[in-house]
Specification:
With 181 residues, the protein is mostly beta strands. The protein is built from 2 helices and 17 strands. A hairpin with a 2-residue loop joins strand 7 (81-88) and strand 8.
Length: 181
C-alpha cells in the first residue's frame, strides 16, 4: 500500500485529504479513497503563544477570497485576516477585515478570546491563555476556550459567499458565557 497526495502541513495549517492507494493483489488494479487528515491541538500547543502562532489555518470561499490566521490569533503574515477578498481576480487580493477583538463575559468575569501581538512585542489581549483546543472539522477551524466551567466555541465557516466572513459562535454548555466581538 502506498500513500500519496496532499496531507496536513501543521506548520502552515494547510490541511486537505490525502489519498491512500492500495493495489488489489488479484487484479493488479489500484483503488483510491480519501483518508481524512486529523488536526487537533490541546492546551500544550494552544496555551503556548510561540507554538500556536507557528501553526496556521486557511478557509477559502471558492471565488478567490479567503480567511487565514494562526491558531493563537495574532497575525504573523501580511495576508492574515478574517476576510481577504479577490476584488480583481485572479490577482488583486485585498485585506478587508483584519480581525476582531472578542471577549466572553461569564459569571461576572471577562475572558479574552482574541490575541494581538503589537509592533513593540506587547501581547494584549492574551486570549491564547484561555484557548483549550483547536481542531479542524473538515476544513473549518474550530477554537474551544475555557472560561471557568464554560466552553465557548468559535468556528470559521466554509463558503464565504460574496466575500463575506462567516463565523459561528456557540455555547458548549448551557451555562456558557455571552460572547461579544
Amino acid at each position: 500500500m502506498v500513500e500519496h497526495g496532499r496531507s496536513a502541513d501543521l506548520l502552515s495549517g494547510h490541511c486537505t485529504e490525502s489519498t491512500r492507494v492500495s493495489e488489489n493483489k488479484n487484479t493488479g488494479h489500484h483503488a483510491s479513497r480519501p483518508v481524512p487528515v486529523t488536526v487537533d491541538f490541546g492546551r500544550e500547543i494552544c496555551c503556548s503563544l510561540e507554538a500556536a502562532a507557528e501553526r496556521e489555518w486557511r478557509v477559502t470561499n471558492g471565488i478567490g477570497g479567503f480567511a487565514s490566521g494562526t491558531v493563537a490569533g495574532p497575525a504573523t503574515r501580511r495576508y492574515h485576516g478574517l476576510l481577504v477578498g479577490a476584488l480583481a481576480p485572479p490577482l488583486g487580493r485585498t485585506l478587508l477585515v483584519a480581525g476582531l477583538e472578542e471577549t466572553a463575559n461569564y459569571d461576572e468575569s471577562e475572558y479574552a478570546l482574541s490575541t494581538c501581538r503589537w509592533v513593540d512585542g506587547t501581547v494584549n489581549p492574551r486570549g491564547y491563555i484561555n484557548l483549550e483546543r483547536f481542531r479542524l472539522e473538515g476544513s473549518c477551524p474550530v477554537w474551544t476556550f475555557a472560561c471557568a466551567d464554560a466552553r465557548p466555541r468559535r468556528q470559521k465557516q466554509e463558503g464565504m459567499a460574496r466575500d463575506r466572513p462567516r463565523t459561528r459562535r456557540t455555547r458548549v454548555r448551557d451555562c456558557g458565557p455571552e460572547i461579544r466581538g
